[in-house]
Amino acid sequence: MLVSLKWLREYVDVPEDVEAFSRRLTMASAEVEGLLRVGGDWDPELVRVGRVLAVEPHPRADRLRLATVDDGAVAPLRVICGAPNLEVGQRVAFAREGARIVDGRTGEAAVLARATIRGVESAGMVLSERELGLSEEHEGILVLPRDAPVGEPLTGYLGDVVLDVHVWPNRADLMSMVGIAREVAALEGGELRLPPEGHGEAGEPASEAVSIRIADPELCSRYIGAVIEGIEVGPSPRWMQERLLAAGMRPISNVVDVTNYVLMELGQPLHAFDLDRLEQRAGGSAPRIEVRAARRGERLLTLDGEHRELAPGMLVIADQAGPVALAGVMGGAETEVTESTTRILLEAARFQPSSIRTTSVGLGLRSESSTRFERGLSPDLCGAGAARATRLLEEVAGGSPRPGAVDAYPQPPGRAPIEVSRQRLETVTGLVLGEGEVEQLLASLGFEVLRRDAGFVVLPPWWRTDVAIAEDVAEEVVRLAGYDRLPATTIRGRVPPHEPQPLVELRERMRDALAAAGLREGISYSLTTREVLERVLPEEELQRRAPLRLANTLSAERELMRPTLRHALLEVVARNLRAGLPEIAIFEAARVYLARERASDGPLPDEREQVAGALSGAARDRWGMPAERSLDFFDAKGVLEAALAELGVECRYEPGEDAVLLAGRTARLEVGGSPVGVVGEVHPRVRGAFDIEQPVILFEIDLGRLLPHVSGRRLARPVLRFPAVEQDLAVIAPLSVPAESLRAAIARSPLVSEARIFDLYTGEQVPPGMRSLAFSIRYQAPDRTLTGEEARLEQERIAGLLAEEFGARQR
Amino acid sequence: MSSVEEVEAALAEERAALAGAGDERALEEWRTRVLGRSGRLTAILRSLGERPPELRRELGRAANQAKAALERDLAERQRELAERELAALSAGSLDVTLPGRPRPRGGLHPITQTLREILAVFSEMGFASVEGPEVELDRYNFDRLRIPEDHPARDMWDTFWFDEEPSGAGRLLLRTHTSPMQIRYMERHEPPIRIVVPGRCYRYEATDATHEWMMQQVEVLAVDEGISMADLKGTLWECARRLFGSGRQVLLRNSYFPFVEPGVELAVDCFACDGTDPACTVCRGSRWLEIMGAGMVHPEILEASGYDSGRYTGFAAGMGVERIAMLRYGVEDIRHFYQNDLRFLSQF
Q1: CB contact under 8 A, B231 and A491
Q2: I need a surface site. Which of A110, A782, B54, B143 has the fewest CB within 10 A?
């Protein structure tokens, strides 16, 4: 909300130090998001209210004139002026040489310089609104009211400070100048000056001219209809227009401006109907206004020229002939106030917030009125609003009010007192205050406070519709007392029992393990597109388990919840390759989202913790430079081996298949006999879809599947103390025999404590279809020193076994 | 037959040989050949028994003296060689300014690192870390947090919605904050409660330098008998001190979230300028950096979870991890975090 301090000062004193004042308001009440100084640049010595003493033609320029202006200085000044609306006697905004103004042509800040145009010197200027930085208006000069004091600095006369105040959605009462003024009075200790209310009355009672019925008091708890006659529609006075402009509203006509003015001043939305039009619709009789829900098939031509089909449930103002306004949202065109209007029905009502919100959000018609109704206004405000607007219509539109506005108020609610115990107050706020201080703080906000044995009974003022329970009262106390008075303590109670979160813990350990193995962690978006998913998931998979689709997206890139991490990693690889990075080794640990397969699984989708990684590019040489060798399958496998060893997991790598990975270059990860993931080289077709022209190795592990195999407890094995015998064994084995099968067979010997592959060879000395594999074997017994002879015999046995089981003969 | 002359000749000869032994191995060979079990001098000493007694004494003395001399020489030679080796080692044969052999260097995302620090602070104060679903029911994300559909407070959270509407359960959405986990946790636990809830959240809004549509939050919830706003202040202050420095001050100011009452915003004084520089690029001269929203858990939330709000009170807080990471690392644009440019990530 825009708050003009000039306007606000009518109701309450505002400290001169505007910044400190804004901070206090922000601390206790509502955030001041911006501070605009109107005329802050106007030098009080150089920019003043002037009076045009004389206007003469420029001797050598048809369109220019010479104005002699008195700005209170010793001698009047003669300046050149091109404005068509300049006249003798006008009060104007006048600047002398050296003043900071806005250049009328460029709109940029400028310093007014002495100029000579066609032989006439000019050392000042009569200013337009644009040159003052007030608006874009530059057709003519700004003409000030006739009573503007000549010689007064313009910054004092026209300057203002406008605060942009963000009011929390619960504070309906702060959405007005008087509401802010009340808050300021409480904060600064000043006195509140409410606007005058009374007005004259003439003619028959209003109830003769109109009747009002509320069909559903739930939807509309109060509806006041005031009848004002003798109206002369025209422009509103300058002061009213200035204030509306400062509040960000456009002046329209005196009647509309009065409703908007009261909306801004008191926060009560108002609507004016043309009463003659209503009477015409009622066939010449008194209109019977009804506040009710719209009926099926009803239509309304609204003020914005739209023919609207009304949905049942929308709250409307109707007469005998049907709807005339969408309650609280927008009026109807037929009963709109026009230039020829002389009699009006002025509406001040209290509509149910949720009804207004549903209708205004549904129709996309948010307005200053609807945003106030939505927050929940007090029905008490209707009376104040109607009375104030009636008085202003009398003042500025020549209106003559009928006595006794019609007030439909079927069930005035009582105000509920709130019991607030001292103990509650102290627990919630953490602040121990004297009873007198509590009373004084609350009283300053308009609360009525009674002391009770153990605390207070508090009656909130009628405008505070947000205060209902003791905690609400506690907030009032603490925000006014100041949060800086709160002590800082720590929780004293019992620490709740620990509940292990094994999956989360596994994910975090996996993050550490992969980072330690040399991978960099990335975090990518959870949403993607179908087109991207099609690159990494087979069509039948996308069909079978359709990814969750958003109903509203800001961009096509955020359409589907990702059921995999694969595309994200390939996108990261592609992006970094484009950036020219030679080596990429990255992982992400995040959730994937799978639609539930059965309704019985609950309403929420399956969010699975996964980890996936990608390696691509050149390995590094001794200098850290890209080496000849590219990162390959075994680099990725090495990362996984290191990471899984870190987690204490024994993993088998079996030849596997995967839609995205190359057959023959893919391994399935098996832990404890069940598959937990996959690692392999990405199919050129798939990486091609991401514009990647070099091999990429991808891995993926489902942490939920891995979890049961991660033992919480690692048992220590005794260190073998007796000396070991090291022997090498080289065999020539068929290519079809996995190396791990041979190694595992060797390791199975009770006398072998470790068996490792250390050489692999295919070539001239090896027959086709075969390869040479060399193992380094450590023979060691747990209970004695093994002799070389024992080791030799065991190695012979093993060699025999390899020959028999795998057709591998010793070299 | 050896004579004293011969012993002396051997002594001179072997001394010369020793001087010519240039390394550890040559010394060991020399020792074995001369002083070893079947070495030259040992042989002379062994043969003493075969000598006439008068000769034996003279020869024995000479041989023993020669042996002792050679042993001394050997020790001296060993020392010399060790010194020479050391001198060679330290003679600058390594250019220590050459780069080390590179090891693959991985690392955690700056958001993960920041998140872990936040969780660690609360862990030390007895808060357990729990996680909840990102795809939520509107009931948990809004209604049960006192944000009904027809209330303007809903405008505070722009939401990604799903079409799916599991029968009877309400509509699905991407959670806009981690607060739904307050409700989910209280449904299944009794006080005392101390939890932190990290996780991804989503907002239906355009991105700019300070707004992302995906972000990570940490929710804080403590419920017990006698928890006050002073506890809120003390606990969150401790968090701010740990993240931004032990001397930091905090400021609470009035705010509004439907699920707390009173509601506050917490700011920490600027760690970059200590609130002294009007041109500070971190706090933009405002001195205070807002880092989280907080408040006392609304009694209706406690009651709806089956807690006696007359007996129990609590506080809740929520903070954006990106915001804190941006401040700590001096990252000027939030969009850097999720672009996964390794040139950015490898700085952390």
Answers
A1: yes
A2: B54
Q: Do B227 and A620 touch (CB under 8 A)?
A: no
Query: In this structure, what DSSP letter does residue B163 have?
Result: S
Tokens of B221: 């919830």
Provide the CA A372 distance to its chain's centre, in angstroms: 20
Q: Is residue B157 among the annotated active site residues?
A: yes
pLDDT score for A515 = 97
List, in sequence order, every beta strand (DSSP E) within chain B.
Answer: 128-129, 135-137, 172-174, 193-202, 214-225, 250-255, 260-269, 288-297, 312-320
How far is residue A776's CA from residue A590's CA, in Å, rounded to a whole number? 40
Q: What is the pLDDT of residue A350?
A: 96
Question: What's the CA gap between A506 and B72, in Å, rounded?
Answer: 65
Instruction: Render the burial of A332-359: b for 16+ CB within 10 Å, e for the rest.
Output: bebbbbeeebbbbbbbbbbbbbbbbbbb
User: What is the rounded distance in angstroms from the CA atom of residue A655 to the CA atom of residue A661?
Assistant: 12
pLDDT tens-digit series, residues A519-537: 999 999 999 999 999 999 9
Sign, Cα dihedral of A614, A619, A620, A622: positive
Rounded CA-CA distance B67/B40 in Å is 10
CA-wise closest residue to A39 among A121, A129, A122:
A129
Q: How far apart are CA B300 and CA B308, in angstroms?
A: 10
Judging contacts by C-beta atoms under 8 Å, the chain A residues touching residue B234 are 487-490
Query: Closest to A624 (Cβ–Cβ): which among B102, B167, B222?
Result: B102
Contact indicator for A68, A193 with CB cutoff of 8 Å: no
Q: Do residues A490 and B231 make contact, with C-beta atoms less than 8 angstroms apart?
A: yes
| Out of B112, B153, B231, closest to residue A490 by CB | B231
Shortest CA distance to A629 belongs to which of A620, A639, A638? A620
**Which amino acid is it at A356?**
I
Query: Residue A435: helix, strand or coil by DSSP?
Result: helix
CB-CB under 8 Å, A427 with B230: no
Ramachandran class of A25: left when φ > 0, alpha when ψ lies in -120 to 50, beta otherwise? alpha
* Backbone torsion region of residue A65, taken as left when φ is above 0, otherwise alpha when ψ lies between -120 and 50, otherwise beta: beta
Place of tokens 């250390």: A758
Cα–chain-centroid distance for residue A635?
Answer: 44
pTM (2 decimals)? Answer: 0.87
**What is the spatial distance between Cα A276 and Cα B276, in angstroms, rounded to a whole number?**
65
Asked if the C-beta of B109 comes within 8 angstroms of chain A's C-beta atoms, the answer is: yes
Is B203 noted as a catalytic residue in this protein? yes
- CA–CA dist B288, B282 (Å, integer): 10
Q: Is the peptide bond before B262 cis (omega within 30 degrees of 0)?
A: yes
Q: Does A246 touch chain B (CB under 8 A)?
A: no
**Rounded CA Rg of chain A:** 42
Q: Please compute the mean of the pLDDT values over residues B101-129 and round it to a whole number.
A: 95
Q: Quick check: B66 and B42 in contact, CB under 8 A? A: no
Does residue A175 have a pLDDT over 60? yes
CA A387: distance to chain centroid? 39
Please report the DSSP string for A68-110 in residue order. EEE-SSSS-EEEEE--TT--TT-EEEEEETT-EEE-TTT--EE
Residue A428: closest CA among B203, B207, B225, B229: B229
Looking at B316, B317, B321, B325, which residue is catalytic? B316
Token pair in block for residue A725: 């015998």
In this prediction, residue A295 has a pLDDT band, given cuts at 50, 70 and 90, of: very high
ipTM of the complex: 0.88
DSSP-derived pairing of the beta strands B193-202 and B214-225: antiparallel
Determine whether the interchain pair B222/A586 forms a contact, defined as Cβ–Cβ distance below 8 Å.
Answer: no
Q: Best mutation site among B229, B264, B335, B348 for testing chain A: the one with the most A CBs within 10 Å?
A: B229
